[in-house]
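Final report, closing paragraph on structural work. Over the funding period we assembled a curated collection of sequence-structure pairs, and we close with a single example.
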Amino acid sequence: MKIPNIKIQHNPYLDDIFKVWVLSNPKYKDWVCPTASKVKHKIVAYQKIWNEKGEKILSHICKITELSFKRNHFTVHIVSGNPRSYSDPIVISVSRTNDEFFSTVIHELIHCLFVDNKNSSFVKNTDKFEDHVALYAIMESVMPGIVEEKEKRGYQNNDKYNYAKGVVKNKHKEIMESLKS
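Its predicted structure, as stored:
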């Protein structure tokens, strides 16, 4: 089983794009850009939490899904102004707590695992809802309580993803078994 190398770094080019977008959006009119020092400190903290448990969680995900990453390396791009995360490329905001960062990077890496294994039973089609049912089932299997924790923090606050999390919360074992068949 091949576990990719994960590099966590600030991306000043993407950061500039996200800063302009956030600053031009009235919804974020009170947003204050973090200092360069804060960004550096957060990246050190993110790297530490990744080093402590990231490879172990990815190994467990590959084991229970019987999937493997096709890529050897992923860069996690940390930016200042970004209200959501992305998986291609992986982009995460510096505003996340360490635990939020960790669960978010695992979430995005599972999307990458799905892309690397598009013909597997875990990725039956490109429907984002079905992908997220599988994704949350995997996350709940390797990080018990994570789905409920994400709900408390208000991530993915829309009906489609809340429903996906609701389906998974108490049925992740059954979902994992059905996806393997």
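The longest strand covers residues 73-79. Residues 154-160 have pLDDT under 50 and may be disordered. We thank the funder for supporting this effort.
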